Amino acid sequence: MKKLAFLVLAAVFLAATPAQASDIVRVEVMSQNLYIGADLGRLLAGEPPAALLQTVQQTNFPERAVEIAEAIDDFNPDLLGLQEVSLISVFDAEGNVLLQLDYLGILMAAIAAEGENYAVASSVTNSDVVLPVDPEAGTSARVVDRDVIIYRTTSTTVSNPQWANFTTNFQVEVFGFPIEFTRGWTAVDAEVGGQSFRFVNTHLEVEGAPCVVGDVPVICQDVQAAELAGELADENLPIVLVGDINAEPGATAYETFASGGYTDTWTIRFPYNNEPGFTCCQSEALDNVESELDERIDHIFISDDDLDPVFTLTTVVGDWEERKTPGGLWYSDHGGPWARMYLRFQ
């Protein structure tokens, strides 16, 4: 119903501006944190990896992926930035695989089952760690974190994929094992409606996590935001930047983009903040009855100097009960911001 209302609004708008219609290109994008399925902060609190693995299995990504794929089928973004695209493997003492969950493979299969045509455009591998699950039995788990861009092959062509990890990342020791929560970004040149732009997807560190640059203590996500903004500063194409920024409006990492040459598409649609657009976070187990989203930390930005947003429609996908799984789980701990933008390329 939400998308139908948006379609009606868009049709009315374009009908009212026929002289401009030929100059306008419609671009639809979305961002979605898939959620690994457990709160990794429990590791820092001393809980064993086996307990987190149990929660990951209970939050059942294969079942959740079906609902995410249905949402993608409903909204049909031309490009979609995914975060926490996990690859989890559990091995016995001989190296035999006891369990494997490839979130990307599972989701792409679910999207195909919906009859949609999406392909991977670019991917970056972030953290890649191995932890003991049952030291006595010799079992261990390898957990790989990725950020991925997928695109709708029937509406979009892509080229020039790039990716990188941030140089500054949160580091901690867990059960005597040093772990770096490596974060990164990935990008691709995209063409939609005959116009080209750079599509960028990222996942910054959580709010407040400390890092050190030289001997100076800093906030990881602030340094990462500045690094990404610097990487994009010399980009010749218009930029659409999406991701789990892990920062609300007003926070330093958010303002790095919002005050540094980018426009938050949510503020175009809702300039007076009359719609909160919360994207985070449901309960760890995803079984809360009513939505607990109370922060807007996932965003869609466009570069100010290159793109003129003639008209924008936006919503948060996955924040209503119809998106729950048959088992009563929210499809992720994050809702996914979606935007349909009628853009004039400058």
Task: Note down, in words, how this protein is organized.
There is one protein chain. With 346 residues, the protein is of the alpha+beta class. The chain has a single domain, classed as Endonuclease/exonuclease/phosphatase (Deoxyribonuclease I, Chain A, 4-Layer Sandwich), CATH 3.60.10.10. Helices cover 24% and strands 40% of the residues. It is built from 9 helices and 18 strands. It has helices at residues 2-16, 18-21, 41-44, 49-58, 61-75, 103-113, 220-232, 252-258, 265-269; strands at residues 25-33, 79-83, 87-91, 97-102, 118-134, 139-152, 156-165, 170-174, 177-181, 184-192, 195-203, 210-213, 216-219, 239-244, 262-264, 298-303, 307-317, 336-345. Strands 1, 2, 3, 4, 5, 6, 17 and 18 form an 8-stranded mixed β-sheet that branches. A 6-stranded mixed β-sheet has the order 7-10-11-14-16-15. It has a two-stranded antiparallel sheet with strand order 8-9. A hairpin with a 2-residue loop joins strand 8 and strand 9. Helix 5 (61-75) crosses helix 6 and helix 7 (220-232) runs parallel beside helix 8. The longest helix is centred in the N-terminal third of the chain and has 15 residues, at 2-16. It is globular and about 65 Å long. The two termini are 33 Å apart. Residues 1-8 and 11-19 have low confidence and may be disordered.
